[in-house]
Amino acid sequence: MTFFMKQMKSPQGTVLKSKAIFNQKAPKVASFSSRGPNTIAVDILKPDVTAPGVEILAAYSPLNSPSEVWFDKRHVKYSVLSGTSMACPHVAGVAAYIKTFHSEWSPSMIQSAIMTTAWRMNATGTGVASTEFSYGAGHVDPIAALNPGLVYELDKADHIAFLCGLNYSSKTLQLIAGEAITCTGKSLPRNLNYPSMSAKLSESNSSFTVTFNRTVTNLGTPNSTYKSKIVINHGSKLKVKVSPSVLSMKSVKEKQSFIVTVSGSNLNTNLPSSANLIWSDGKHNVRSPIVVYTYSG
Length: 297
Prior knowledge:
GO terms for molecular function: serine-type endopeptidase activity. Keywords: Hydrolase, Protease, Serine protease, Signal. Belongs to the peptidase S8 family. By secondary structure, this protein is an alpha+beta fold. It has two domains: 26-154 and 193-293, Immunoglobulin-like (Sandwich); 155-192, no CATH class. Helix content is 20%, strand content 24%. It has seven helices and eleven strands. It has helices at residues 2-7, 84-101, 107-116, 132-135, 142-145, 156-165, 170-177, and strands spanning 56-59, 78-81, 150-151, 197-200, 208-218, 224-232, 239-243, 246-249, 255-264, 273-280, 285-293. A hairpin with a 4-residue loop joins β10 (273-280) and β11. α2 (84-101) packs across α3. It starts with a helix and ends with a strand.
């Protein structure tokens, strides 16, 4: 552009009207994005959500060249970048945005609001790339996250019980918690009060039954009734039961617990079977992915 303006006596340009194009496959996870399953805590679904991360105009360090090669002497304040390092600040910005409206919300409440209100992603393609191991709960929706209705909240005791379930030593737990910790009974890691539900099974060709214990906190309106709905994803043969199937919230910040029981058989090796649990009061739709899998890779 600069070269053109210098060469022309009367340089002129035309700004065309932008045109919106609807793509049914969007949003789509980039091929270079990291996938699950979680290899450390196998019963915690990862990733949590997706966010914009391809060709993002972002601030750039003037100490490095935009091409990152030694002979490039250019220095810029902004550059177009792609990667998880671009998606992460989008989610951080969404969290900060929510915090300005709800300063009293804890980090886990904000995380839950982001996950349970995310757009459900379209399964495009085959294999792991078109499953929750690719996109988690879905694509972030900042506006919807301001009013999630129900949230899955975590406190220090929840995290300690989770780490005990992962067989962390007392010495390691003390370093993390800042105090002496004694594990009294071991809670299954899958029972961490997380907005998603996931379980890794040891065998693919046998029948199974797994349960998830969860507690939700009402951040919607008092005297509200949430009814559960299960949506089985294409190709999955899961049977899912929620007990109780209806939650009656009398006040704001009221907590109620429920159990999700998932059963089935003959899982596909390395390909998860999944469903969605949706709690709805007619105004809010609090959605949590449910994933059961066996993995040999």
